[in-house]
Amino acid sequence: MIDFKGMHFPKDVILFAVFFYLRYPVSYRDLEEIMEERGVDVDHGTLNRWVVKFAPLMAVQAQSRKKPTAVSWRMDETYIKVKGKWTYYYRAVDNTGKTLDFMLSERRNKAAARRFFKRAIGTNGVPDRVVIDKSGANLAGLQSVNVILKFTGSGNTIKILQVKYLNNIIEQDHRFVKRITGPMLGFKAFHSTEATLAGIETAHMIRKGQLHANGLTAFQQFAALAA
């Protein structure tokens, strides 16, 4: 259960604002006006603090409650600007387009790729195969994970495929994230960027039907993660 004690607004109001920001292409000032239209007087700075505080907590719950994913993965990275500089956003989906994991990194190298793959495996288990682009860093990172698996696991390793057209699924999936981040007018800090992206991915997972809906609307599914 996510703790809302000490907050000066009702839990449902906070969750609605956070979900709306993560699901739709709006700025904080846009959302401030939307909330005011609904009779809630809250400034954009407070809305930002809600997103940074609660979005990553909701993401953790979504990862633990999502439906099983396939063992054939697609991995790629895209670019997110933070404080005027480009950072690297690693993402992976399975071969049906379901979200596996994501990680923001200041660098694009073997160490970052290895860290991402270890994180994704920790969340989703070891895949049979991973499709990547022609990046040497991603290949080296995955090969180093295979070395670890070979000597510490069951002996099974991951089949690595570098076939660009097979990665169309994840390249298309990047577009949802970019559509939401576009109107946000840039990110000012690495930590808040990580938090916001985690929330966007959670809303995207709900949109893709990765949680058990049980007849609930998208917002109701999001709110249920806080229970």
Descriptive overview:
The protein is of the alpha/beta class and 227 residues long. The chain folds into two domains: 11-67 and 189-224, no CATH class; 72-173, Nucleotidyltransferase, domain 5 (2-Layer Sandwich). It contains eight helices and five strands; from the N terminus they run αααβββαβαβααα. The chain has helices at 11-23, 28-37, 44-65, 110-124, 136-152, 168-181, 190-207, 218-224; strands at residues 72-82, 85-94, 99-105, 129-132, 159-162. Strand 4, helix 5 and strand 5 form a beta-alpha-beta unit. Helix 1 packs across helix 3 and helix 3 (44-65) crosses helix 7. It starts with 10 loop residues before the first helix and ends with a helix. The mean pLDDT is 95. GO terms for molecular function: DNA binding. This is IS6 family transposase. Involved in the transposition of the insertion sequence. Keywords: DNA recombination, DNA-binding, Transposition.
